[in-house]
Predict the 3D structure of the following.
Amino acid sequence: MKLSALISLGLVALPELASAAGGFGATCKSKDGTWMRTRQDMNLCMGRDGERIVRKDKGNLFVPSNTETSCAGVSMRGTALRLTCRIFSEKGNREEHRLVDLDYIVGNQDGYMWCSGHRSAPH
């Protein structure tokens, strides 16, 4: 199920969204209609492919690095995660804002967020 559908089912970004650990809190509706509040470590879901931010199992996108792209300062904009990323490349080092559509990263599976085979934990 896409995040846009999750939002219509009550997915709610919580204040801890901006944590350095890349945690993302949400409330999702399960198949039986109950609401579940869970939290997903987005380091398990997102990573880098060169300068691109991609869905990646154990990608550690939010782990600070002095040699690889890493991101922090997250906020929501619709179904997109707005990131401030430090980019390290042959073109030079720079800071950029990126939008990542969470429809391609997480889904709702019976009230739990899932990504790359990782289920969110109750919160």
